[in-house]
Specification:
about 400 residues; Urease, subunit C, domain 1; TIM Barrel; 2 domains; about 35% helix; about 20% strand; globular; binds N-(iminomethyl)-L-glutamic acid; binds fe (iii) ion; iron; Amidohydro-rel; EC 3.5.2.7; MQNX/HUTI_composite_N; imidazolonepropionase activity
């Protein structure tokens, strides 16, 4: 299939994985096309040249101005949950503190309570609905965490629901076990005892049932300590689990653990200081910033500009969850953050595509290049700069997953 012509194609190729990017470094193919076969890209380039080189390809003719990009990769979400937390949000915007909200029955534990009583089918349906909404907004790969179960049956139920959901959405879902979201209120032992229980009882079953090979842990004064997290991540790695960390959200410390244990990514980073920024920049750990959580909590953004200037690999993810980031609009969040943090379009699109891929250990997507998946999205405009200019209101009009057109 030859798809095109597109007014502009941003293939996101040939750019470094780490550090600052100028828009001058962003390759743009004018009047371009893509040849896709068996879900993969066969060629990207000048439309007329492709027509000559591939005369037998079926044509998917684009008859309006469009800008083509790789599908976005959202490497951090919690879209498997039941219920919502609008009561928390109302209290927060009225000025109530985290502790006051928790005392009134809000916070992560409220979502745990609601998710524990939901059945697998309901959780899978909720996940599919959110994944499909994301997909129609150009997000073709979505990481999804457990972490609202926090006991054996409920964590297993969440990860089974994510697995079922992945069979009912064209989007790729990448599951992660976040049993280390917080020590459950109904667990009598210490944090170390709880993490040891996750390691010895839960992770082997998740592995045996192929439900996930990734773990996440929330390192924070209200969740798990750096010391306990370090032992947990080392032990999980020994069992074959790749890791990501909720790090430096309110207090710094988590990203140091992420780097020391070789985690794929350190996510949040709102409270990262120059020390953590340096550590991340000098490591292979992807620095994932979550503007949706800053917007939802009314807090400062993570230091994305500084991270890039120091040389980090910066990804932007939605953190879509019922508590701190209920909006779930990745493009809007990235666009709004870019104005505050002074990120170039090249840096933003990189953070949503090929720089997010290594956080999920994916090498088959994130750029438009021969051999990679034909995961693509097109915006109804003739200038890529319009996409961030409209701050998330300009949505893609065509989306392809594995070369197939996705329809609502
Ligand atoms: O990434 N920081 C911890 N966990 C989530 C919030 C989850 C919740 O409030 O339900 C986050 O922001
Ligand atoms: Fe999160």
């Amino acid at each position: 299939m030859l798809i095109g012509p597109f007014t502009q194609i941003l293939p996101m190729t040939g750019m470094p994985l780490k550090g600052a990017l100028q828009d001058e470094q962003l390759p743009v193919i004018h009047n371009g096309g893509v040849v896709a076969e068996d879900g993969k890209i066969l060629a990207v380039g000048d439309y007329k040249a492709l027509q000559q080189a591939y005369p037998d390809q079926e044509l998917q003719f684009i008859d309006q101005p469009m800008v083509l990009l790789p599908g976005f990769i959202d490497c951090h979400t919690h879209i498997c949950f039941d219920g919502n937390r609008s009561r928390d949000y109302a209290m927060r915007i009225a000025g109530k503190s985290y502790l006051e909200i928790a005392r009134a029955g809000g916070g992560i534990w409220d979502s745990v309570t609601k998710t524990r009583v939901a059945d697998t089918v309901t959780l899978a349906e909720n996940t599919v609905a959110r994944a499909n909404r994301h997909l129609m907004e150009g997000v073709t790969t979505i990481e999804v965490k457990s972490g609202y179960g926090l006991d054996f049956d409920s964590e297993l139920k969440m990860l089974r629901a994510i697995q079922q959901a992945s069979l009912h959405t064209p989007a790729t879902l990448i599951p992660t076990c976040l049993a280390a979201h917080m020590k459950p209120k109904d667990y009598a032992g210490t944090e170390t005892e709880y993490l040891d229980w996750v390691l010895s009882e839960l992770l082997p079953v998740l592995k045996a049932q192929s439900l996930t090979n990734r773990v996440d842990i929330f390192i924070e004064e209200t969740a798990f300590s750096p010391a306990a997290a370090t032992s947990y991540l080392r032990a999980a790695a020994a069992k074959g689990f790749a890791a990501t960390v909720h790090a430096d959200q309110f207090t710094a410390g988590g990203s140091e653990v992420a780097v020391a244990t070789g985690a794929l990514s350190a996510d949040h980073l709102e409270a990262s200081t120059d020390k953590e920024i340096q550590l991340l920049a000098q490591s292979n750990t992807v620095a994932v910033v979550l503007p949706g959580a800053s917007l939802g909590l009314g807090m400062p953004y993570a230091p994305a500009r500084k991270l890039l200037n120091e040389g980090a690999c910066l990804a932007i993810a939605s953190d879509w969850n019922p508590g701190s980031a209920p909006m779930g609009d990745l493009l809007l969040q990235a666009a709004v953050m870019s104005a505050a943090e002074k990120l170039s379009a090249a840096e933003v699109f990189a953070a949503l595509t090929f720089r997010a891929a290594p956080a999920l250990l994916l090498t088959d997507r994130g750029r438009l290049e021969a051999g990679l998946l034909a995961d693509m999205q097109a915006y109804p405009t003739n200038d890529y700069r319009d996409i961030l200019y409209f701050q998330g209101k300009l949505k893609p009009c065509s989306i392809w997953k594995n070369g197939e057109t996705v329809t609502a």
